[in-house]
Amino acid sequence: MVILMLGAQGTGKGTVAGLLSEKLGWPQISTGDIFRKNMKEETPLGVEANKYMSKGELVPDEITVPMVANRLNEEDAQAGAILDGFPRNLAQAEKLDEILQEKGKKVDLVINLTSPKNEIITRILNRRVCSNQACKTTYNLTMHPPKKEGICDKCGAELVQRGDDSDEAAIQNRLNIYDEKTLPLVEFYSQKGVLRTEEISEKTGRLGKDVAEDILKEIKGDIKIG
Ligand code: ADP
Ligand code: ZN
After folding, report:
1. Residue-range domains of the chain with CATH
2. Which end of the chain, N or C, is less packed with Cβ atoms under 10 Å?
3. What local confidence, expressed as pLDDT, does residue 9 receive?
4. Exposure of 19 by Cβ count < 10 A (0-12 exposed, 13-18 middle, 19+ buried)?
């Protein structure tokens, strides 16, 4: 089963994807995480991606699409996968259909997260991630803080802020790009009948973990796990 996450930055895509991945035992394939790992290791892919990421721009499809196709070929992604951060434009979505079709698969469920704009910016500025590459758990200083300040609950590593999360101009740029390039995917997947939209808001109290719980109940009832 292929699940994909849609939604602007700071709506909690990573949180929902992480919970689904943990409970379903399928990998969370985050293109942003793969790029950041490569940046840290200073691979040629990382150096190239960094030119775009530091400005909040999309990394070109010629780089991103083959990277995802390779990841989807790996053994651990055969039973199911949760795509987080891909596709980000129509061309990527169409390419993804082709990649999956060749494997006799399709996008089964698209979880589209929305959130009030004022909450989004605060949430991005308050976002902290675990510096341990094998863990990468995301926290939020106000909504979902770690038990001990600056330390990951799960593995004890230091929490850090992503470079592009501390720069308000880069954040605004990412939100504009989302509206322009990624929002059309809502219509694309809605027409395919696989879209599920969920609003995450501190005001209504419906958070990522509530959405993940509801979806898990439905999926586990629907398909056999393992
Ligand atoms: P956010 O959701 O906060 O933007 P991500 O980790 O998803 O964080 O992405 C960080 C950056 O990585 C993006 O701003 C973009 O530069 C790059 N990126 C991630 N996914 C893609 C993609 N599918 N296509 C192009 N660039 C991407
Ligand atoms: Zn950790």
Report:
1. 2-116+168-220 (3.40.50.300)
2. C
3. 87
4. buried
